[in-house]
Every structure is written in C-alpha cells, then in structure tokens.
Amino acid sequence: MEKLSNKLAIGLQGRHIMWCPGCDSLHAITVSMDGWQFDGDTENPSFNPSILVRGKRFTATGEREYKEWQEQKYPKLVKDFDTKETVCHSFITKGKWNFLADCTHNMAGKTVDMVDLPDWVTEAKA
Known about the structure:
Elements: E1 2-3, E2 9-10, E3 15-20, E4 25-30, E5 37-38, E6 47-58, H1 60-72, E7 83-93, E8 96-99, E9 111-113, H2 119-123
Antiparallel strand pairs: 1-2, 2-3, 3-4, 5-6, 6-7, 7-8, 8-9
C-alpha cells in the first residue's frame, strides 16, 4: 500500500483508502473508474460524489454467538448470526468528513476532520 499522506493511501487496484471515524473502519474508493473525482490534494482531499457504504455489523448477541461458534464449532452459518444493517453516507471536502443524516452511526449530521490512517494500514503490502 502506498502512503500518500497520513490520511490517505493507495491500495489494491488504485483504490484511495481512508479511515472513517464514524464507522471506525477503512473506506476505499476507486477514482474515475467508479465515477469518483479526486482534487489531488493529499493533505486535505476532496472527493465527489458522495461515498455510500452499506453493510452489516454484529449486534451484541451476534458477537457472542460468533465467539461461541469460534470456540465450540457451533454449527450455525455466520450469515445467520444477529446483525444490523449499517449505512455510512458522506462527502469528503477539503479534508473533512461531512456525514449525512442517513448514517446509522453516531456521526450522522456531523462534520469532522479526517483522521490519520492506523500504522498497520500503510505497513500492509498492496
């Protein structure tokens, strides 16, 4: 993975990688190929259009079930564990995350500075 700045890296297939403080995880987009535009500023980047990430996260019950499954080889498929649907919808403008109201995390409706990528991200081989 190529580090462009403390906040931005390039990963597999040229994806721009950044750490989302709302999801507490990585988000990655492919500029131009997927339709996103990048202003080229690696310190205070802007991307357009919005970034929409949908997924699932374990609920507290699902996490407990998953741990039991790991320890005891519980015969349940991972997809059957209790999960909740998640949405992270945002713009990144001049180095700030603008989280839209439809986000399911606690940053919905807030604007915050981009955060540095964890060291393990930029130490990984692409």
